[in-house]
Amino acid sequence: MAFSKSWGYGVRALVHMAAAADPEKRWQSGELAEETGLPASYLSKVLSAMAGEGLLDSQRGRGGGVKLARAPQRIKLSDIAAATDDIPGDDPSMDAMDGAPKHLTDALGARWQPYRRGLVEYLATTTVADLL
Predict the structure, then answer these.
(1) In this structure, what CATH number is given to the domain that contains residue 38?
(2) pLDDT value for 94
(3) Concatenated DSSP letters for 15-78?
């Protein structure tokens, strides 16, 4: 199971925003992209998705931009995963096992479950503030 670029960019952007001296600062996507080294057009889409999920407060127009909608201690990595549609699946990617016998794929899936539960717990208990 690998996380998407969207999730990684979301984590990087939120941690960068949380580390800023002024927590009320509104960030333009281009400015945030430049400071974090992320591609501006892709980051803009990620920021929009996170605003849609209530992680960011977005304001248009002069003086607009995005800022954290809640304290970094209240933003979990699982929230970012939900905003970027990056929730760990029930089974690991089985692309490499296409055509394998069912008993083999079932055994692999069963062994994956404890790791998935651990990953889900990690995402649900780790916050943006923990990464500062």
Answers:
(1) 1.10.10.10
(2) 61
(3) HHHHHSS-TT--B-HHHHHHHHT--HHHHHHHHHHHHHTTSEEEE-STT-EEEESS-GGG-BHH
Give the residue numbers spanning the domain of 20. Answer: 5-131
pLDDT < 70 regions, the chain = 1-2, 88-96
Distance of CA 85 to the CA centre of its chain: 8
What's CA 86's distance to the chain center, in Å?
Answer: 7
Q: What is the pLDDT of residue 7?
A: 93
Is the pTM higher than 0.90? The answer reads no
How many distinct structural domains can be found in the chain?
1
Q: How far, rounded to the nearest angstrom, does the alpha carbon of residue 126 sit from its chain's CA centroid? A: 12
Give me the pLDDT at residue 10, please.
Answer: 96
Contacts of 31 (CB under 8 A, 6+ apart): 65
